[in-house]
Amino acid sequence: MNNIAFSFPKTTEKHPQNRVVSAEYKSSQNFFESDKILKHFLKKFISDTAWQYMAPKWQKLGKQAACDMDLLSQLADKNPPELIKRNFFGETINEIRFHPAYHTLTQIAIDSEMFRVKWQPDLRSAFQKELHKLGFASFFLFGMSEGGLPCPLCMTDGVARLIDKFAQEEDKKRLLPHIYSTNLEELYTGAMFLTEKAGGSDVGANLVSATQWKDNYYLLNGEKWFCSNANAEIIFALARTNPEIKGTKGLSIFLIEKKKSDGSPNTMEIVRLKDKLGVRSMASAECIFTDTLGKLIGKEGEGFKIMTEMINLSRLYNAVGSLSQMRRALIEAYQFLKYRISFGVSALEHPLIRTKLTELASIYTATFYLTWHAIHTLDKADNGSSEDAELLRLLTPMLKKTAAEAGVYVIRECMELMGGIGYIEDGVMPKLFRDTLVLPIWEGAGNIMVLDMLRASAKSEGLKIMFPFMQKQLAEYEFLLRELQTIQEIFLQLPQMDKDTTEATAKPLFERLALLYELALLKFYKDAENGEWVKPAFEYLLQKLQSSALSFQKPLSVQEVEKMLAWVVA
């Protein structure tokens, strides 16, 4: 048979205009180097020593997030964990197996030292006043390219916090080194088993029981309905030691380890893995305790109070996860639109696109400073500031609700800006959207956050700290001061209202308060360098708050929008 050489036409050479994006298209090769907003904040609010120590790690992670992690994340997402109930000989093993990409992603996370810098004793001592800023910066960069594994990462830091604050010294010495290890084989990840069928968000309705076995060891029995990171080596679970004591007052907290001290497996049946809409790379399960050995932490009846330490930290992680995925969606849309030719010009030249990007960049910038203000506040609270601890009681649920809802909106809008290609699973946008949809739900849905803010406004000094700060920052805007005055008056009247009126009023009230607080923070954090993105964000949100009537609008220029996005292709 004769060999015949076929010459196929090269479409792009014959028709150079037949492209999705122009030949000049560039995308970032390092998410840390590209992000002017993140770098500006960190340089300003962490020490020189911390910068020198962490910057090389952020450089490495920024490159991995831009160049390697998307493929790994897609592989882990398309090949979710598998539950192996029994081995070849019919023995029950309840093993969860992951795609190799999941383990590679985990190694990238621990190499970034998001845990080590916080929990390794020497580093913890050296950077005591800025531990959360350093750890969350790594988590932020990691979250730009992977949305499933951040849940186990969050839980791991959370169990470390509980062990450090409440466990016995022997447990700290034995377990914490596994959390700050840089060796994947030695790493222990964490989990919080909270939710049950009967209760859901109503934790006080939980039924799982705990019966004292020996000393401070108990045997736990019952079902946990939603157990994320079900393969964790360290689990904190709530259980009821006395069924006669109802509500959260009857709950105690227990440290459950995957293996007992003799090396044998602790009893826990994994019924099934959850088939989730998003965050599919990590394992969420339904689990049954049958005489599962757990160690009482604290005193009986203190469980929910202790667990709130982990819950509140996880709400902050939730916000940072939303922020990082918002950032990724914004820069994906921006890089695409910059090189997408539409009606003869770059898509960025179209006023409606610039107007939408202005809105989304404003939401992102406001959420950025709200989130990092909370992180900064947590660092101060952990270093003994009682005022910052009081502020966090209100700020944490406010941030969680605000950031999670903003993330869903911003990513959906970015997807639309990209058109049909934004909906295609080859790219990151669909996965970003699916993964972000869980954030308004997990760690307390929006309505639960409203109720939590109501409790915090009554039981903490948060409002008394917020109001003077906002009045000072917004003093030059009379209509904003009037808004604040109205909000204060409503808060004063709330205790006299019936329950239905109070709760129905609370949601729009706190949403308005959050927007005003974001405006105050933009004013507070504005300086000579960040004005390029802070000033237009403030002005946009101010106009949104002030104006309800139709009027003529002048969009920002391409250059002004690009300055707002503060992203340099690097």
From TrEMBL:
The cross-references to InterPro entries, in alphabetical order and at most eight, read:
Acyl-CoA_dehydrogenase-like, Acyl-CoA_DH_CS, Acyl-CoA_Oxase/DH_mid-dom, AcylCo_DH-like_C, AcylCo_DH/oxidase_C, AcylCoA_DH/oxidase_NM_dom_sf, AidB_N
Q: What is this protein called?
A: Acyl-CoA dehydrogenase, C-terminal domain
Can you give the residue ranges of the Adaptive response protein AidB N-terminal domain?
27-182
Q: Where is the signal peptide?
A: none
Q: Where is the Acyl-CoA dehydrogenase/oxidase C-terminal domain?
A: 301-456
Q: Which cofactor does it need?
A: FAD
- Family listed: Belongs to the acyl-CoA dehydrogenase family.
Sequence ranges assigned to domain Acyl-CoA oxidase/dehydrogenase middle in this UniProt record:
191-291
* Species assigned in the record: Raineya orbicola
UniProt keyword list = FAD, Flavoprotein, Oxidoreductase
What sections of the sequence does the record tag as coiled-coil? none
- GO MF entry, a single one: acyl-CoA dehydrogenase activity
